[in-house]
Write a structure and sequence with these properties.
disordered C terminus, membrane, single chain, 464 residues, transmembrane helix, Hypothetical protein af1432, HD-GYP domain-containing protein, signal, HD_GYP_dom, elongated
């Protein structure tokens, strides 16, 4: 609370010059920029502001549909234009309506105040840097690259101040910023530069002979881009919600699946990134890995909760779960090739897997990845009937089975990923797992089974 109070106080101090409304404050320009930022921010994030309601009315959409996912990408070109054209206090004021009336998670009041304060401070600092570099003078003459360099410095200042303030709040509320913070900043940099270029374009057009009209017209392509981006965010959020709902349904039947599904999805992503798969395929693979055991919904609960060996008939009943899983997700078009990954994740390179006995390259790539991720997490996880293996031992076992059960390329990718990023299995819940099934065994040595029977190698207690 002290940190929030300090940021709010600093933002209020930045806005104090507005109390003495001198000629340097162009109120019509400030008001128009603030209104544009509010409307376009609401469009980008799906907020329930008056502008968003008008937009929904024009497009004939329901309020609930438009507000399904308020987490959009944000829309900063107008805010950056204010930074380049206005004094620091006025630039800070432009940011307030969009932040105070925009979407926020509960408790909404404090979060909106925080959003407004940190954006106001970032905008004021960026505007001050632009002023000190003589950017406003260069902008009037549209001299390049002089104005562009000043604008770049202002954008970097905005991002730096915003990042420091947010990192401070995260550290106070969560105890640590997290190792992915720098990666998140790197991923955000291209968007910040794009929005900054948009802000510079708006500022230059505004200074031209057609004034605000030309600037607003120039916003049209940026607005369309922001809206399309928001649509993508909402669609991906709907996909995540669908996957999560299915996983939760499986967890009700099979206690061991709790955590296992997410870890298999995470390990699949580690392998995919080592292989250099395209980001869209990585996202699809993550969904498929998380849903690889969704077919357990169609398996008798008594078998899933049996804490002991299964008969041959019972084992065959459990081995049908990939087919059931494929049927359950058949209509989920966003899974794409992930559906085949779910169907074939228990196939083996030597053709002794199930359900179809595929071998080698005939097994879909996603299935070969998920198979390794599934086996690795199974071996390193503790179950009620045995302790999890140490990571080095599980890695050695995967390497021993490479070529017969697992694709050596996928095993090598997981080994490299674990060496680079580490792996920490989630601990079992207090009291252990509630009677999870001793799943189909993995790996070598090979069991003494008839050739027509599907077999897997590794000792009992393998992958789910």
């Amino acid at each position: 609370m002290l940190y929030l109070a300090a940021v709010l106080t600093a933002a209020a101090a930045v806005l104090l010059p507005l109390a003495a409304a001198g000629p340097e404050f162009d109120w019509p320009r400030i008001g128009l920029l603030a209104l544009l930022h509010l409307c376009l921010e609401s469009l980008a994030q799906g907020a329930r502001t008056p502008c968003a309601r008008i937009w929904r009315w024009v497009r004939g959409r329901s309020a609930d549909e438009a507000h399904a996912d308020p987490r959009g990408s944000g829309f900063f070109p107008v805010l950056f234009a204010g930074v380049l054209m206005l004094p620091p206090a006025a630039a800070a004021l432009v940011a307030l309506p969009g932040a105070l009336l925009g979407p926020a998670a509960p408790p909404r009041g404090p979060r909106r105040l925080w959003n407004g304060a940190q954006l106001a401070l970032a905008a004021a600092a960026a505007a001050e840097v632009f002023r000190l570099l003589g950017g406003a003078r260069l902008l009037l003459g549209t001299r390049f690259p002089g104005a562009a360099l000043g604008a770049l410095a202002a954008i970097l200042t905005f991002c730096l101040v915003n990042g420091v303030l947010v990192a401070g709040m995260i550290r106070l509320t969560r105890g640590a910023v997290g190792p992915g913070a720098l990666g998140a900043l790197r991923r955000a940099a291209p968007a910040a530069l794009l929005h900054g270029a948009g802000g510079l374009m708006i500022a230059v057009l505004w200074q031209g002979p057609y004034g605000a009209f030309a600037a607003v017209l120039g916003l049209l392509p940026l607005t369309i881009t922001a809206w399309l981006s928001a649509q993508g965010h909402r669609e991906r959020a709907a996909h995540r919600a669908t996957v999560q709902a299915l996983v939760q349904a499986v967890e009700i039947k099979d206690a061991y699946t709790r955590g296992h599904s997410e870890r298999v999805g995470r390990a699949s992503v580690l392998i995919a990134r080592q292989l250099g798969l395209a980001e869209e395929r990585v996202r699809t693979l993550h969904f498929a890995g998380t849903l690889h055991d969704v077919g357990k919904l169609a398996v008798a609960t008594e078998l899933l909760r049996r804490n002991g060996p299964l008969t041959d008939a019972e084992r065959r009943a459990v081995e049908v779960h990939p087919v059931f899983g494929h049927e359950l997700v058949r209509q989920l078009d966003f899974l794409g090739e992930g559906r085949d990954g779910i169907l074939h994740h228990h196939e083996r390179m030597d053709g002794r897997g199930y359900p179809h006995g595929l071998a080698g390259e005939r097994i879909p790539e996603f299935a070969r990845i998920i198979s390794v991720a599934d086996a690795f997490d199974s071996m390193t996880s503790t179950r009620s009937y045995r302790r999890g293996r140490p990571v080095p031992e599980a890695v050695a076992e995967l390497e021993r089975c490479a070529g017969s059960q697992f694709d050596p390329v996928m095993v090598g990718a997981l080994v490299r990923a674990v060496a680079e990023h580490g792996w920490q299995p989630e601990p079992p819940p207090p009291g252990g797992w509630d009677g999870e099934v001793p799943d189909i065994p993995l790996g070598v040595p090979e069991p003494a089974r008839l050739p027509q029977q599907s077999g897997t190698g590794l000792p009992t207690g393998g992958a789910a």
